[in-house]
C-alpha cells in the first residue's frame, strides 16, 4: 500500500503535532499499519465514506483516531482525517487532518473537489 500526503495535509499535520498533539506522527503510522492496510474502504463507525460529493474517487473520513497525547480520550480524541482511496493503484492519499473542537466542522469539500474532480 502506498501512502501519499497532499501539501495541505503536511502543513496541518505539522501544525497540530507542534502544538498539543506531540505523538500525532507516531499515532498516524500505527493507524496506517493497523487499520488502513486491512480496511482501506472503511471500518464503521471509526472510518466512514463521505457521500454527496458527486465524484468517482472514494473519499473516507476517520472519526475515531487514537492519539496518545490526549490522555483518557482513547479513540474519541477529536482528531479527524480525510483520505482518498484508489483500489486499482492500491494507494491512499491523505487530504486533510483537523481537530474538531466543540462542534464537528465538516471536511473541506472545496479541497476534495479541487483535487478529485
Counting DSSP E segments of at least 2 residues, the number of strands comes to: 5
How widely separated are the two ends? 23 Å
The biggest beta sheet reads:
5 strands, mixed
Shape: globular
What fraction of residues sit in β-strands?
15-25%
Count of domain modules: 1
**Highest-level CATH class:** Alpha Beta
**Structural class determined from secondary elements:** alpha+beta
CATH fold description: YaeB-like fold
Order of helices and strands: EHHEEEEH
Low-confidence stretches: none
Q: What would you say the CATH architecture is?
A: 2-Layer Sandwich
The CATH H-level superfamily is RelE-like
Compute the CA-based radius of gyration: 13 Å
Give the strand line-up of the largest sheet: 1-5-4-3-2
Mean pLDDT: 87
| SS field, number of helical segments | 3
Q: Helix proportion of residues, in percent? A: 25-40%
Essential attributes:
alpha+beta, 117 residues, 25% strand, 29% helix, YaeB-like fold, 3 helices
Task: Note down, in words, how this protein is organized.
- The protein has 117 residues and is of the alpha+beta class.
- It has one domain: YaeB-like fold (2-Layer Sandwich), CATH 3.30.2310.20.
- It is 29% helix and 25% strand.
- It contains three helices and five strands; from the N terminus they run βααββββα.
- It has helices at residues 7-19, 24-36, 109-116; strands spanning 2-5, 47-49, 58-62, 79-86, 91-99.
- It has a five-stranded mixed β-sheet.
- A hairpin with an 8-residue loop joins β2 and β3.
- The two termini are 23 Å apart.
- The model has no long low-confidence stretch (mean pLDDT 87).
